[in-house]
Amino acid sequence: MTSADQILGSTVPAELRSGTRIQAVGEPRHERGHLRSVFGAFATGITVVTARGDAPLGMTANSFTSVSLEPPLNLVCVDRTAAIHDVILRDQVFAVSVLSSGQEPLATYFASHSRPRGEEEFALVDSVPGPRTGVPVLAGALAWMECRLAAVYDGGDHSIFLGSVLDLGHGTGEHALLFHGGRFHRLLPGAA
Description:
alpha+beta; seven-stranded antiparallel sheet; 4 helices; 12 strands
């Protein structure tokens, strides 16, 4: 039984638990580049998801959304091959920092597969331990949330992590960093 199955228990049918792959039966296959282009037409905010592990880990994610105000829940989709994936499953906590317009270098850094790993991954990153979990929260972010893993769902090559919000706050950033069409964008001041 995987960690995800232990979290899910028997509340989700076995065919939908982590480790069970969703198969599109009779559906046409789509060329990966075209699919990314169409998905990329939807503008999103940018977050960095962090976990503790033996050393802090982070990853850039734009597949993040609020789910519920009562109880407070959010979700983030994490590639099953990402180093942070199994750490979140094991420790069952993570943090999300919503990036401000001046934090594009952080978004690029945490998206890079060539960044340093281990203790050095956060050596040059301004962050503080979250007050509830100790998971790093990025300084200068628009907002941040510390979460306990509430459930895990299959999302094809990703796992969908449902987070129960333990603590949250606003940061010092003023404007959001956005992602659209495969590139970063900023909201213009006064444009809303």
